[in-house]
Amino acid sequence: MCGIVGGIATRDLTPVLLEGLRRLEYRGYDSAGIAALDAAGAVNRARSTGKVAELEQRLARQPLTGQLGIAHTRWATHGKASEQNAHPHCSDRLAIVHNGIIENHHPLRLQLQELGYVFTSETDTEVVAHLLAHHYGRQQNMLSALRCTLAELRGAFALGIIHQDEPDTLYCARMGSPLVIGVGSGEHYIGSDPLALLQVTDRFIYLDEGEHARLTRDDCQIWSKQNQPVQHAVQQYQHAALSMEKGEYQHFMLKEIFEQPAAIADTLDGLLADDHVLTAALGPGAESQLPLIRNIHIVACGTSYHAGMVARYWIEEQTGLPCQVEVASEYRYRQVCVPEGTLLIAISQSGETADTLAALRYAREQQYLGTLAICNVPGSSLVREADWRLLTHAGPEIGVASTKAFTTQLTALLWLTTALAQVRERAPEIIAANVRALRSLPARISDTLELAPAIAELAKQFQAKHHALFLGRGPHYPIAMEGALKLKEISYIHAEAYAAGELKHGPLALVDDDMPVVSVAPSDSLLEKLKSNLQEVRARGGQLINFACERAALDDGEGITHIAMPWVYETVSPILYTIPLQLLSYHVALIKGTDVDKPRNLAKSVTVE
Ligand code: G6P
């Protein structure tokens, strides 16, 4: 997805801006550009398709220097990947970079064309450049022009702006897309991700939604959406939090469990508006196809397969589209029937899993409407070979047992479900509720992570056990499967998951006081059914461990342990209930002394069949 870097300093910023773009490359992009104010006071610009290295080669031939500058990596949404569409975009004497999507770009473009503005790109961003120039022309004041412009924009954006008339000032604004201000000594920077700026500073101001700022070398003024001055503390960056080091954590797996709030917020970056989702984020080709989808097939392996299973419940309930989910190793070897208008979704953290890749290649020979990769690695084979892509932004996942990759896949899949519901004109209140729930997820997950000490205590009950059963119903059945898989993978305890209604059809025979039974019990429409299943376990002396909503009112008593989960909107609860199961398997493995990050016999990326 797109990336922004910018700065105002007393040194030439081109090397800093280029290094910033290199640090954002991992997000995925298809063109890059830079604009800076030279010593004579003119804005110069260089752009190129392809890699940042190609932009660098161009700058080696035609150098560009300046102490005030902005730079960008673009991932095409409005308009193909081309030099004309690459950022920065210019109008009159100003240049801007933009992340996000301007939803009302079309009417604004028509108004500006009537006023005589000529467009040189297909982007929504150029609309913002001309609108700023238009307001500046009338007011001769950049701050007022910026405010008038922001008041007219709908959608999600982060903006960086420079103007020839203000050679010592960098402007920026954010709404729905992240933007941080980097504080240096006699210099200020902006970046869509602090990682881009760690080369020059580790002190940051995090802008809130709707805020805009004016930065000079020595000063940083910030205003709210209502144009009221606001003060934010400068925060020291916690290096361990996002780097490839374990930092304060004993294992990568634990660190990655705790990174989930940030990973989910990153995955949602630029995808949500106030009460609806921004479908343009899927890219020009995909957006126009969404209304044509009549049916969905999902293929994946391992943990990614569980994400697909949860998505089936969401998709069928919220969009009415039939959805089928299959492990890729089975799908690739059978004759599939593909009804007209079917979308194939391949889910993979690595994008290199041999069976998932083979399934995608097989699907491309069938009559699918199109293929979509949901993936965490932008340059992976899966992303390159699918027609469309929806990237998760979990960051590198080192622990073999997948954690943050799974919850970001679920986040992306719920977003996709909402996008499909939106194009199919499903009830707007459901769409708005999904958006609210997605937005609140990082905070709810942070709350849930506070259960870690209680779960570490609970894990002691598993010390001498050899088997465990996991139960769930509805979309929490695949979450129970994921919980059982985690326990198997890293603690080597045999664990099975059952849809709780199946208990009587076999597994109940295994239940005795040596068999812990873990239940996933959110406060949903199936709770009463689940309660009956749990009584069946207790009646046979089974030890029950319930991860239950604080409002669920489950029976207490001997042999029953409850971990109370915060209440959440029903649709997102599968994402939330994953967290305690991850923590449980981690703490059991810790007690058993296994190699948590590299469990025996397993590989992170299975590139052979
Ligand atoms: C391996 C990993 C799992 C992962 C599965 C699918 O088995 O150990 O954690 O879920 O591959 O990987 P993918 O990269 O396609 O999601």
Automatic annotation (TrEMBL):
Keywords: Aminotransferase, Cytoplasm, Glutamine amidotransferase, Repeat, Transferase
Residue span, Glutamine amidotransferase type-2 domain: 2-218
Active site, UniProt feature: C2, K604
Entry's Gene Ontology BP terms: amino sugar biosynthetic process; carbohydrate metabolic process; fructose 6-phosphate metabolic process; protein N-linked glycosylation; UDP-N-acetylglucosamine metabolic process
Main EC class the enzyme belongs to: transferase
Reaction catalysed by this enzyme: D-fructose 6-phosphate + L-glutamine = D-glucosamine 6-phosphate + L-glutamate
GO cellular component: a single term: cytosol
Main location: cytoplasm
UniProt GO molecular function: carbohydrate derivative binding; glutamine-fructose-6-phosphate transaminase (isomerizing) activity
Domain of life: Bacteria
Localization of this protein: Cytoplasm
Domain SIS: start-end pairs: 286-426, 458-599
Subunit structure: Homodimer.
HAMAP family in alphabetical order: GlmS
Function comment: Catalyzes the first step in hexosamine metabolism, converting fructose-6P into glucosamine-6P using glutamine as a nitrogen source.
The protein, known as: Glutamine--fructose-6-phosphate aminotransferase [isomerizing]
Species of the source: Halopseudomonas aestusnigri
